[in-house]
From TrEMBL:
Origin: domain of life: Bacteria
Keywords from the named record: Hydrolase, Metal-binding
Domain Fumarylacetoacetase-like C-terminal as annotated: residue spans: 27-227
Coiled coil found in the keyword field: no
Protein known as: Fumarylacetoacetate hydrolase family protein
SUPFAM superfamilies, per the entry: FAH
Length: 227
């Protein structure tokens, strides 16, 4: 037994539909993975090599509340499919990539867009805009054994009942197996790793009191209040 010099922090987890919890090791997020969202962010939607950034494992939050963060006046919603891995490795072949998936969940990649924009202009990392406390609201994980693999299906987000984002998972530029295989060329993926797979067009700002409802076909809905 390790003799820690301070109390060990709790293991970040995602609740599992039907009971239990999934321990989170790392969170990888792909950028601009829906063509229409790439366009709205001012980029060419052509299939260029994918790029990833990271959130912290304890940024994921299943409380149903999103505290509006400090030092920002432009916080955006981004509805995303979460892919949770039960195993990993390096240089995973494309045709074996889905063998490593444990399950899927609905999530939000909340973004301090103004701080992210400043970082982009200065050529700096995005963490200040992406990896802040409780910036990853997440619903329960659903095991592949019950959902099957999700290659298509509607993904949408409503704010106060008004539709803001909509798309289909088949519109992803880089599909789930491709993301897993590509990441494994640069990182050693392991059980507990999570991939947030990008957002469709329609991202926009929220304010305190707003209620966001994120829905992915086959996974149900995630309701989150901005507080």
């Amino acid at each position: 037994m390790t003799d820690f010099v301070i109390p060990a922090p709790p293991v970040p987890t995602i609740p599992v539909s039907g009971g239990g919890a999934f321990p989170v090791r790392r969170v990888y997020c792909i950028g601009r993975n829906y063509a229409a969202h790439a366009v709205e962010m001012g980029h060419d939607p052509d299939r260029e090599p994918p790029f990833f950034f990271q959130k912290n494992p304890n940024n994921l939050d299943a409380s149903g509340e999103f505290p509006y963060p400090p030092h920002s006046n432009d916080v955006h919603h981004e509805v995303e499919l979460v892919v949770a891995l039960k195993s990993g490795g390096t240089n995973i072949p494309l045709d074996k990539a889905l063998d490593h998936v444990w399950g899927y969940a609905v999530s939000l990649d909340m973004t301090r867009r103004d701080l992210q924009g400043e970082a982009k202009k200065l050529g700096r990392p995005w963490e200040i805009g992406k990896a802040f406390e409780r910036s990853g609201p997440v619903g329960p994980l659903h095991p592949v054994a019950k959902t099957g693999h999700l290659a298509q299906g509607r993904i949408e987000l409503k704010v106060n009942g008004a539709l803001k984002q909509e798309g289909d998972m088949n519109q992803m530029i880089w599909k789930v197996p491709e993301m897993i295989s590509y990441l494994s060329e640069y990182f050693e993926l392991q059980a507990g790793d999570v991939i947030m797979s990008g957002t469709p067009a329609g991202v926009g700002a929220v304010v305190r009191g707003d209620v966001m409802e994120a829905t992915i076909e086959g996974l149900g809905s995630l309701t989150v209040k901005v507080v």
